[in-house]
Amino acid sequence: MFIQTEATPNPATLKFLPGRTVLPEGTLDLRSGEDASRSPLAERLFAIDGVAAVFFGYDFITVTKTGGEWQHLKPAILGAIMEHFMSGAPLLREDAGVDMDDADEFFAEEDAATVETIKELLDTRVRPAVAGDGGDITFRGYRDGVVYLAMKGSCSGCPSSTATLKHGIQNLLQHFLPDVREVEAV
Predict the structure, then answer these.
(1) How do residues 76-134 score in pLDDT, each as one tens digit?
(2) DSSP codes of every residue in 142-166
C-alpha cells in the first residue's frame, strides 16, 4: 500500500491519500480523543503523541498536529493508516455516523430560495477546491444577509481561512446573490 501526502494551506495539518475510498459519503471531523471512539483508525491516530485532530473525507485523511515536526510525526501516522487499512477493520464503528451537512441549520422560510442557491454554489464551486486542500466548508445558516459556514479539517484554524472566507467565498456569493452582505465562520 502506498500512501501519498500533501501539504495543506494550514502548516499544522497534513493531508494523507491512501489511494482508496476513506469515507464514501459525508465527512467526519474528530477534534478529541473522546470523538475518536467513533473510529478505530482515529483512535490509532490520536494515540500518536502530537496529534490534535483527524478529519476524514471521501478519499483523504487530514491530521492536525499540536506541535513537533512533521518529519517525526509522519512515519507514525503513515504506519497507523497502513495498519488500519491492511487489517480490514471498518473506518467507523457501527453506531457512529458521519457529520451531516444539514444538522442545526437556520434560516427564515422566505430565504429558502437564497439558501438553496448558496448551497449549490458551495457544493459546486467551493467544496471541491477546499477538499483538494484537505478540508470542508458546510452551510450552517443565513440571517439578515449574513451566511454562516462551518470550517472543518485543514480549514479549521488555518491562517488563510479568513482570506478564503472574506475574499473568496464572500465575493463569489455576492457576485451571484447581491443580498449576501457578509460570510462568517461558526
Answers:
(1) 999 999 999 999 999 998 765 555 555 678 899 999 999 999 999 998 888 888 887 77
(2) EETTEEEEEEEETTTT-TTHHHIII
Cell of residue 114, nine digits = 437564497
| Type and span of the H or E element at 176 | helix 170-176
Chain region(s) in the chain for CATH 3.30.1370.70: 4-87
DSSP-assigned letter for residue 139: E
- CATH fold for domain 4-87: Ribosomal Protein S8; Chain: A, domain 1 (3.30.1370)
The residue whose grid cell reads 495498519 is: 83
| Sign of the alpha-carbon torsion through 43, 139, 184, 166 | positive
Distance CA 27, CA 12 (A): 20
